[in-house]
Amino acid sequence: MTRPSFKTAIAAGALVSAALLATPGVAGADTLTGWIGPTLPVNGNALLHQSTIINSPNLIAQSKVWTVTGADVAPGGLGVRARLFKSGALCQAVDYRYNVKIAAEMQVGTTAECGTGWYNSHGFVAAWNGTSSYKEFVTFPTDPLYFEVPASPSARAQVPESITIESGVNGSGQSFGSGAGVESDADLPDLVAAIGTNGEIGYIKKTELGGPASSPEQALASNTGVRTVSLYDQDGHTVIGEFTVS
């Protein structure tokens, strides 16, 4: 079985999924990593960052940032948020997590899955500039990795392997489409394709995905619990379900 490229998986997810359904014994345990991305120094530290996708024993999308020299960073100086996509639809989004102790690296991973299919990891990292704000960097997306969900009664486990993501502009002037592969949240469509808690395919508002904290103090005091946002039809008004950001 030939693994499709990242762009092919997004643009032709339905075709890929249909081919896989006809292929018995699909894909074994595997781990894929994206390119390691370097940064210019931030507050005196050059950084590296990377995304990883793992399909066994559990499906996990990870994003990681670390200092090139192994130098430690003060609490709240490093932030990471992970995102898991299934054929271009957001399956799980993890809010920024920050190092609570002095550390040279920070890594965050997802915990959800949305049924059998092709997945990839694509997140963001941030570093405090020492004076006024966090500098944010996008991790290079991984190639897609196939995951076959074990028997499960959950609604999300029953999400069809073939997903069609529509894109365009609705009657209210809002853009809608996939959020996979963007270089920043500013590049996201107004409505980002996502998979709801009950397996519905819809869209969440990009403003609901949040961003870096305003300071290390706020970062360390931020609430890291699960929050629920509305899942919309492409009209941006009709609520068809819920999506949780963890």
Supply the key terms:
mainly beta, globular, 246 residues, 3 helices, 19 strands
Largest sheet: 5 strands, antiparallel
Mean pLDDT: 87
Q: Low-confidence parts, pLDDT < 50 over ≥5 residues?
A: 1-26
Approximate helicity band: under 10%
Q: What is the 3D form?
A: globular
How many structurally independent domains? 1
Our estimate of the beta-strand percent is: 35-45%
Task: Quote the distance from N terminus to C terminus.
Answer: 34 Å
Rg from Cα:
18 Å
Put simply, the count of helices is 3
Structural class: mainly beta
Tally the beta strands: 19
H/E element order: HHEEEEEEEEEEEEEEEEEHEE
Write up what this structure looks like.
It is a single chain. The protein has 246 residues and is mainly beta. The protein has one domain (6-245). The protein is 9% helix and 35% strand. It is built from 3 helices and 19 strands. Strands 1, 2, 3, 4 and 9 form a 5-stranded antiparallel beta sheet that branches. Strands 8-5-11-12 form a 4-stranded antiparallel beta sheet. Strands 7-6-10-13 form a 4-stranded antiparallel beta sheet, with helices on one face. The chain starts with 5 loop residues before the first helix and ends with a strand.
Topology of helices and strands:
Elements: H1 6-11, H2 13-21, E1 31-33, E2 37-38, E3 47-54, E4 60-67, E5 78-81, E6 83-86, E7 89-93, E8 97-98, E9 105-109, E10 117-121, E11 124-128, E12 134-138, E13 145-147, E14 168-169, E15 175-177, E16 191-195, E17 201-205, H3 216-221, E18 227-232, E19 239-245
Parallel strand pairs: 15-16
Antiparallel strand pairs: 1-3, 2-3, 3-4, 4-9, 5-8, 5-11, 6-7, 6-10, 10-13, 11-12, 14-15, 16-17, 18-19
